UniProtKB/TrEMBL annotation:
First and last residues shown, out of full length: 1 to 295 of 445
Record lineage: Bacteria, Pseudomonadati, Bacteroidota, Flavobacteriia, Flavobacteriales
Catalysis: reaction(s): GTP + H2O = GDP + phosphate + H(+)
Residues at which GTP binds: 106-113, 189-193, 247-250
GO biological process, one term: SRP-dependent cotranslational protein targeting to membrane
Species: Zobellia amurskyensis
Broad class of enzyme this protein falls into: hydrolase
UniProt protein name: Signal recognition particle protein
Length: 295
Protein backbone atom coordinates (compact mmCIF):
# COMPACT_ATOMS: atom_id res chain seq x y z
CA UNK A 1 0.00 0.00 0.00
CA UNK A 2 1.40 3.40 -1.02
CA UNK A 3 4.86 1.91 -1.57
CA UNK A 4 6.00 4.65 -3.89
CA UNK A 5 4.87 7.43 -1.55
CA UNK A 6 6.47 5.72 1.44
CA UNK A 7 9.77 5.39 -0.43
CA UNK A 8 9.79 9.00 -1.53
CA UNK A 9 8.91 10.34 1.92
CA UNK A 10 11.57 8.14 3.43
CA UNK A 11 14.14 9.54 1.04
CA UNK A 12 12.98 13.12 1.62
CA UNK A 13 13.29 12.76 5.37
CA UNK A 14 16.50 10.80 5.16
CA UNK A 15 18.43 13.82 3.91
CA UNK A 16 17.84 15.53 7.27
CA UNK A 17 19.21 12.58 9.18
CA UNK A 18 22.65 12.85 7.65
CA UNK A 19 23.37 16.46 8.56
CA UNK A 20 25.46 17.38 11.60
CA UNK A 21 24.31 20.98 11.59
CA UNK A 22 20.79 21.58 10.29
CA UNK A 23 20.01 24.84 8.58
CA UNK A 24 16.79 26.47 7.55
CA UNK A 25 17.76 25.63 3.99
CA UNK A 26 17.91 21.89 4.82
CA UNK A 27 14.41 22.10 6.30
CA UNK A 28 13.12 23.97 3.27
CA UNK A 29 14.67 21.39 0.92
CA UNK A 30 13.18 18.53 2.88
CA UNK A 31 9.70 20.02 2.89
CA UNK A 32 9.98 20.67 -0.84
CA UNK A 33 10.77 16.99 -1.38
CA UNK A 34 7.87 16.00 0.86
CA UNK A 35 5.62 18.18 -1.30
CA UNK A 36 6.95 16.55 -4.46
CA UNK A 37 6.28 13.10 -2.98
CA UNK A 38 2.68 14.10 -2.21
CA UNK A 39 2.12 15.53 -5.69
CA UNK A 40 3.51 12.32 -7.19
CA UNK A 41 1.01 10.39 -5.10
CA UNK A 42 -1.73 12.43 -6.80
CA UNK A 43 -2.47 14.66 -3.83
CA UNK A 44 -4.17 17.88 -4.89
CA UNK A 45 -1.73 20.78 -5.37
CA UNK A 46 -3.38 23.11 -2.85
CA UNK A 47 -3.49 20.43 -0.17
CA UNK A 48 0.14 19.45 -0.74
CA UNK A 49 1.19 23.08 -0.51
CA UNK A 50 -0.76 23.80 2.66
CA UNK A 51 0.51 20.58 4.17
CA UNK A 52 4.17 21.35 3.59
CA UNK A 53 3.77 24.93 4.76
CA UNK A 54 2.36 23.63 8.03
CA UNK A 55 5.16 21.09 8.37
CA UNK A 56 7.77 23.76 7.78
CA UNK A 57 6.18 26.12 10.27
CA UNK A 58 5.96 23.40 12.90
CA UNK A 59 9.53 22.27 12.24
CA UNK A 60 10.93 25.73 12.77
CA UNK A 61 8.59 26.36 15.72
CA UNK A 62 9.68 23.14 17.40
CA UNK A 63 13.34 23.95 16.96
CA UNK A 64 14.24 21.22 14.54
CA UNK A 65 17.45 23.15 13.88
CA UNK A 66 18.78 22.52 17.36
CA UNK A 67 17.10 19.17 18.04
CA UNK A 68 19.37 16.25 18.92
CA UNK A 69 17.70 14.09 16.29
CA UNK A 70 16.23 16.46 13.73
CA UNK A 71 15.40 13.64 11.30
CA UNK A 72 13.25 11.87 13.88
CA UNK A 73 11.52 15.06 14.92
CA UNK A 74 10.68 15.80 11.29
CA UNK A 75 9.24 12.30 10.83
CA UNK A 76 7.05 12.87 13.88
CA UNK A 77 5.85 16.23 12.61
CA UNK A 78 5.02 14.81 9.16
CA UNK A 79 3.26 11.85 10.76
CA UNK A 80 1.16 14.08 13.03
CA UNK A 81 0.21 16.35 10.14
CA UNK A 82 -0.69 13.40 7.91
CA UNK A 83 -2.90 11.99 10.67
CA UNK A 84 -4.60 15.36 11.00
CA UNK A 85 -5.07 15.65 7.24
CA UNK A 86 -6.71 12.24 7.06
CA UNK A 87 -9.20 13.14 9.78
CA UNK A 88 -7.47 12.92 13.15
CA UNK A 89 -9.86 10.66 15.04
CA UNK A 90 -11.46 7.38 14.00
CA UNK A 91 -15.18 7.83 13.32
CA UNK A 92 -17.76 5.06 13.57
CA UNK A 93 -21.12 4.78 11.86
CA UNK A 94 -24.45 5.82 13.31
CA UNK A 95 -26.49 2.77 14.23
CA UNK A 96 -29.06 4.56 16.38
CA UNK A 97 -32.20 3.94 14.32
CA UNK A 98 -34.74 1.12 14.63
CA UNK A 99 -33.85 -0.02 12.12
CA UNK A 100 -30.70 1.94 11.27
CA UNK A 101 -30.79 2.69 7.58
CA UNK A 102 -27.49 2.92 5.73
CA UNK A 103 -27.54 4.25 2.17
CA UNK A 104 -24.64 3.37 -0.11
CA UNK A 105 -23.71 5.75 -2.92
CA UNK A 106 -20.97 5.91 -5.52
CA UNK A 107 -20.07 5.21 -9.12
CA UNK A 108 -20.50 1.84 -10.81
CA UNK A 109 -17.47 -0.32 -10.14
CA UNK A 110 -16.41 1.61 -7.04
CA UNK A 111 -17.14 -1.43 -4.88
CA UNK A 112 -20.57 -0.55 -3.44
CA UNK A 113 -22.10 -4.00 -3.68
CA UNK A 114 -19.00 -5.71 -2.37
CA UNK A 115 -18.75 -3.23 0.48
CA UNK A 116 -22.46 -3.55 1.33
CA UNK A 117 -21.81 -7.26 1.85
CA UNK A 118 -18.64 -6.63 3.83
CA UNK A 119 -20.41 -4.16 6.11
CA UNK A 120 -23.36 -6.51 6.67
CA UNK A 121 -20.91 -9.28 7.52
CA UNK A 122 -18.87 -6.99 9.78
CA UNK A 123 -21.96 -5.83 11.68
CA UNK A 124 -23.37 -9.32 11.93
CA UNK A 125 -20.22 -10.85 13.37
CA UNK A 126 -18.83 -7.99 15.43
CA UNK A 127 -21.79 -6.06 16.74
CA UNK A 128 -24.54 -8.64 17.14
CA UNK A 129 -26.65 -6.82 14.57
CA UNK A 130 -29.22 -8.38 12.28
CA UNK A 131 -28.74 -6.73 8.88
CA UNK A 132 -30.91 -6.79 5.78
CA UNK A 133 -29.44 -5.97 2.37
CA UNK A 134 -31.65 -4.17 -0.17
CA UNK A 135 -30.95 -4.18 -3.92
CA UNK A 136 -32.02 -0.87 -5.46
CA UNK A 137 -30.30 -1.05 -8.85
CA UNK A 138 -33.25 -1.18 -11.24
CA UNK A 139 -31.12 -1.01 -14.40
CA UNK A 140 -28.80 -3.98 -14.14
CA UNK A 141 -30.36 -7.33 -13.25
CA UNK A 142 -26.80 -8.60 -12.80
CA UNK A 143 -26.34 -6.16 -9.93
CA UNK A 144 -29.33 -7.69 -8.12
CA UNK A 145 -27.94 -11.18 -8.73
CA UNK A 146 -24.56 -10.05 -7.40
CA UNK A 147 -26.07 -8.83 -4.14
CA UNK A 148 -27.94 -12.13 -3.75
CA UNK A 149 -24.70 -14.04 -4.25
CA UNK A 150 -23.00 -11.87 -1.63
CA UNK A 151 -25.93 -12.29 0.76
CA UNK A 152 -25.82 -16.07 0.41
CA UNK A 153 -22.09 -16.08 0.97
CA UNK A 154 -22.37 -14.30 4.31
CA UNK A 155 -25.74 -15.65 5.38
CA UNK A 156 -27.57 -12.32 5.22
CA UNK A 157 -31.07 -11.90 3.77
CA UNK A 158 -31.38 -9.79 0.60
CA UNK A 159 -34.56 -7.94 -0.34
CA UNK A 160 -35.15 -7.24 -4.04
CA UNK A 161 -38.11 -6.74 -6.34
CA UNK A 162 -37.32 -7.33 -10.00
CA UNK A 163 -40.74 -6.08 -11.17
CA UNK A 164 -40.53 -2.73 -9.39
CA UNK A 165 -38.76 -0.02 -11.41
CA UNK A 166 -38.89 2.74 -8.80
CA UNK A 167 -35.86 2.47 -6.48
CA UNK A 168 -37.52 4.67 -3.84
CA UNK A 169 -40.35 2.14 -3.52
CA UNK A 170 -37.89 -0.75 -3.28
CA UNK A 171 -35.95 1.03 -0.53
CA UNK A 172 -39.16 1.80 1.37
CA UNK A 173 -40.41 -1.77 1.01
CA UNK A 174 -37.04 -3.04 2.28
CA UNK A 175 -37.26 -0.83 5.35
CA UNK A 176 -40.87 -1.96 5.96
CA UNK A 177 -39.74 -5.59 5.75
CA UNK A 178 -36.95 -4.89 8.23
CA UNK A 179 -39.41 -3.32 10.68
CA UNK A 180 -41.91 -6.14 10.48
CA UNK A 181 -39.34 -8.93 10.57
CA UNK A 182 -36.97 -7.62 13.23
CA UNK A 183 -33.93 -6.60 11.19
CA UNK A 184 -32.14 -3.76 12.99
CA UNK A 185 -29.85 -2.58 10.17
CA UNK A 186 -30.87 -1.99 6.55
CA UNK A 187 -28.08 -1.55 4.01
CA UNK A 188 -29.35 -0.11 0.74
CA UNK A 189 -27.22 -0.73 -2.35
CA UNK A 190 -27.98 1.73 -5.14
CA UNK A 191 -27.30 2.01 -8.86
CA UNK A 192 -24.11 3.72 -9.90
CA UNK A 193 -22.99 4.80 -13.31
CA UNK A 194 -19.56 5.02 -14.88
CA UNK A 195 -19.38 8.79 -14.42
CA UNK A 196 -21.32 11.43 -12.52
CA UNK A 197 -24.54 12.24 -14.39
CA UNK A 198 -27.73 14.14 -13.59
CA UNK A 199 -30.00 11.12 -13.74
CA UNK A 200 -27.96 9.15 -11.21
CA UNK A 201 -27.68 12.17 -8.92
CA UNK A 202 -31.44 12.83 -9.10
CA UNK A 203 -32.19 9.23 -8.33
CA UNK A 204 -29.90 8.90 -5.31
CA UNK A 205 -31.12 12.26 -4.07
CA UNK A 206 -34.76 11.09 -4.31
CA UNK A 207 -33.99 7.91 -2.38
CA UNK A 208 -32.07 9.91 0.21
CA UNK A 209 -34.92 12.37 0.74
CA UNK A 210 -37.58 9.68 0.91
CA UNK A 211 -35.89 7.37 3.40
CA UNK A 212 -33.77 9.81 5.44
CA UNK A 213 -31.06 7.31 6.32
CA UNK A 214 -29.13 7.47 9.61
CA UNK A 215 -25.97 7.07 7.61
CA UNK A 216 -25.16 7.87 3.99
CA UNK A 217 -21.87 6.46 2.82
CA UNK A 218 -19.97 7.36 -0.31
CA UNK A 219 -17.91 4.52 -1.77
CA UNK A 220 -14.89 5.36 -3.87
CA UNK A 221 -12.17 3.41 -5.62
CA UNK A 222 -8.84 4.59 -4.20
CA UNK A 223 -7.12 3.75 -7.50
CA UNK A 224 -8.86 6.69 -9.19
CA UNK A 225 -6.75 9.41 -7.49
CA UNK A 226 -7.85 12.98 -8.26
CA UNK A 227 -11.02 11.68 -9.93
CA UNK A 228 -11.99 10.11 -6.63
CA UNK A 229 -11.79 13.50 -4.99
CA UNK A 230 -13.86 15.19 -7.73
CA UNK A 231 -16.52 12.49 -7.60
CA UNK A 232 -16.65 12.81 -3.82
CA UNK A 233 -17.28 16.53 -4.18
CA UNK A 234 -20.13 15.96 -6.65
CA UNK A 235 -21.86 13.39 -4.42
CA UNK A 236 -21.33 15.44 -1.30
CA UNK A 237 -22.93 18.51 -2.89
CA UNK A 238 -26.10 16.49 -3.49
CA UNK A 239 -26.19 14.17 -0.48
CA UNK A 240 -24.15 15.84 2.24
CA UNK A 241 -23.03 12.31 3.06
CA UNK A 242 -21.72 11.19 6.45
CA UNK A 243 -18.63 9.25 5.53
CA UNK A 244 -16.36 7.86 2.88
CA UNK A 245 -15.49 4.24 2.15
CA UNK A 246 -12.18 3.87 0.39
CA UNK A 247 -11.98 0.61 -1.55
CA UNK A 248 -9.21 -1.32 -3.31
CA UNK A 249 -6.46 -0.14 -1.00
CA UNK A 250 -4.89 -3.55 -1.53
CA UNK A 251 -4.10 -2.55 -5.12
CA UNK A 252 -1.28 -0.46 -6.44
CA UNK A 253 -2.82 2.84 -5.37
CA UNK A 254 -0.68 5.95 -5.08
CA UNK A 255 -2.48 7.26 -2.03
CA UNK A 256 -3.77 10.63 -3.23
CA UNK A 257 -7.43 9.87 -2.55
CA UNK A 258 -6.78 8.63 0.97
CA UNK A 259 -4.77 11.71 1.81
CA UNK A 260 -6.88 14.39 0.09
CA UNK A 261 -10.50 13.35 0.43
CA UNK A 262 -11.17 14.36 4.05
CA UNK A 263 -9.80 17.80 3.53
CA UNK A 264 -11.78 18.36 0.30
CA UNK A 265 -15.25 17.25 1.45
CA UNK A 266 -14.71 17.57 5.20
CA UNK A 267 -16.16 14.12 5.80
CA UNK A 268 -14.30 11.28 7.52
CA UNK A 269 -13.13 8.10 5.86
CA UNK A 270 -14.90 5.45 7.95
CA UNK A 271 -13.87 2.12 6.47
CA UNK A 272 -11.43 0.81 3.93
CA UNK A 273 -11.72 -2.16 1.57
CA UNK A 274 -8.57 -4.21 1.22
CA UNK A 275 -9.58 -7.07 -1.07
CA UNK A 276 -12.41 -8.85 -2.82
CA UNK A 277 -13.24 -11.20 0.04
CA UNK A 278 -16.02 -10.41 2.50
CA UNK A 279 -13.52 -10.22 5.37
CA UNK A 280 -11.36 -7.60 3.62
CA UNK A 281 -12.78 -4.61 5.52
CA UNK A 282 -11.06 -2.44 8.13
CA UNK A 283 -12.14 0.48 10.25
CA UNK A 284 -10.10 3.48 9.08
CA UNK A 285 -7.65 4.83 11.64
CA UNK A 286 -5.90 8.01 10.41
CA UNK A 287 -2.94 7.57 12.77
CA UNK A 288 -2.36 3.95 11.76
CA UNK A 289 -2.53 4.93 8.11
CA UNK A 290 0.01 7.71 8.66
CA UNK A 291 2.19 5.22 10.49
CA UNK A 292 1.96 2.83 7.55
CA UNK A 293 2.78 5.52 5.03
CA UNK A 294 5.87 6.64 6.93
CA UNK A 295 6.94 3.12 7.90
P1 LIG B 1 -20.25 -1.56 -7.59
O1 LIG B 1 -20.53 -1.50 -9.07
O2 LIG B 1 -19.95 -0.23 -7.01
O3 LIG B 1 -21.31 -2.29 -6.83
O4 LIG B 1 -18.88 -2.38 -7.45
P2 LIG B 1 -18.63 -3.92 -7.09
O5 LIG B 1 -18.92 -4.18 -5.65
O6 LIG B 1 -19.32 -4.78 -8.08
O7 LIG B 1 -17.05 -4.01 -7.26
C1 LIG B 1 -16.42 -3.83 -8.52
C2 LIG B 1 -15.20 -4.75 -8.58
O8 LIG B 1 -14.25 -4.34 -7.62
C3 LIG B 1 -15.52 -6.20 -8.26
O9 LIG B 1 -14.76 -7.02 -9.12
C4 LIG B 1 -15.05 -6.36 -6.82
O10 LIG B 1 -14.66 -7.69 -6.53
C5 LIG B 1 -13.89 -5.41 -6.78
N1 LIG B 1 -13.63 -4.87 -5.42
C6 LIG B 1 -14.48 -4.28 -4.57
N2 LIG B 1 -13.85 -3.88 -3.43
C7 LIG B 1 -12.55 -4.25 -3.57
C8 LIG B 1 -11.37 -4.12 -2.74
O11 LIG B 1 -11.37 -3.55 -1.64
N3 LIG B 1 -10.21 -4.62 -3.25
C9 LIG B 1 -10.16 -5.23 -4.48
N4 LIG B 1 -8.97 -5.68 -4.90
N5 LIG B 1 -11.23 -5.36 -5.27
C10 LIG B 1 -12.41 -4.89 -4.84
Amino acid sequence: MFDNLSDKLDKALHTLRGHGQITEINVAETTKEVRRALLDADVNFRIAKEFTNKVKEKALGQNVLTALQPGQLMVKIVKDELTELMGGETEGINLSGTPSVILMSGLQGSGKTTFSGKLANFLKTKKTKKPLLVACDVYRPAAIDQLHVVGEQIGVEVYSDRDEKNPVKIAQAGIAKAKSEGYNVVIIDTAGRLAVDTEMMNEISEIHKAIQPQETLFVVDSMTGQDAVNTAKAFNDILNFDGVILTKLDGDTRGGAAISIKSVVDKPIKFIGTGEKMEAIDVFHPSRMAERILG
